[in-house]
Amino acid sequence: MSKPIAKQEARRDLSQRSAEAEWLDSADESPEELALVIRDVASFNGAMLGHWPVIAWLRRATKDATKETTLTLVDVGCGYGDLLRAIRGWARKRGLKIRLIGLDLSRETIRIADLATDDADEIEYRATDIFDYTPSVPIDFVVSSLLTHHMSDDLIAKFLRWMEATARKGWLIYDLQRHPVPLHFIGLMGRLTRLHPIVIQDGRISVARSLTRAEWLARIDEANIARDAVQLRWFLFRFVIGRVR
Question: Which CATH architecture describes the domain 47-175+211-244?
Fold first, then answer.
């Protein structure tokens, strides 16, 4: 690598959100290095059952959809595209017609996700800022996985308002909980596995940057969304925050 991995660990004072930057937020390594990192992030999330809560929510949100209906889902911060590919596999088994669109700020990340995706999966990838994105068709569902901890509090509230205004049928956020258990667990995994060191470093920072339940409720209030319209559930030291219309 052209740049050494920082030795500073994510702050251990979890009483408030850390502002420490993650490598992936300003990745300037080679495309090969980036591919290794986002692939390992996807592998670790898959091992932690990261796709399951999203698909379980989608199952409930689409329970009344007919096989003649074509739905459109946008994954914001799609990364490696692994969640979209998991959704495609689930939708095929159910016979559900769904157009899948993955958005990410990084053009290189989008290129890597596209290369990892079979053409038969029919997933559309775009490199764009979500607040600059103008959908060409109405959006039924918006989902994001392990994204919001990268955002400031103000940006999270803005993102909630955007999803509320954009998603006709519902939206979902899946992200980490700021808690000592995942902080130390990720460090342990770093010693026991062959995950890329940046994945471990960024993983600990991600936990320290994440929100508590009380903070999520505050962001929902700031977005002017009624609390009783949103379901906030806990899953393995992660939060599943969703809204179905």
Answer: 3-Layer(aba) Sandwich (3.40)
How is residue 103 written in tokens? 């958005």
28-36: long-range contacts (C-beta < 8 A, 24 or more apart)? 28/3, 29/1, 29/2, 29/3, 30/2, 31/108, 31/111, 31/112, 33/1, 34/106, 34/108, 34/109, 34/112, 35/112, 36/196
81 within 8 A of 113, measured Cβ to Cβ: yes
Q: pLDDT tens digits, residue range 180-219? A: 999 999 988 877 888 899 999 999 999 999 999 999 999 9
Q: What is the torsional sign of CA 75, 44, 207, 33?
A: negative
Helix (H) or strand (E) holding 57: helix 52-61
Q: With contact defined as beta carbons under 8 Å apart, do 140 and 167 qualify?
A: yes
Helix (H, G, I), strand (E, B) or coil at 199: helix
Q: What is d(CA 202, CA 239) in angstroms, rounded to the nearest whole number?
A: 19
Side-chain-side CA neighbours of 56 within 13 Å: the count stands at 12
Residue with tokens 């998991």: 86
Is this prediction's pTM over 0.85? yes
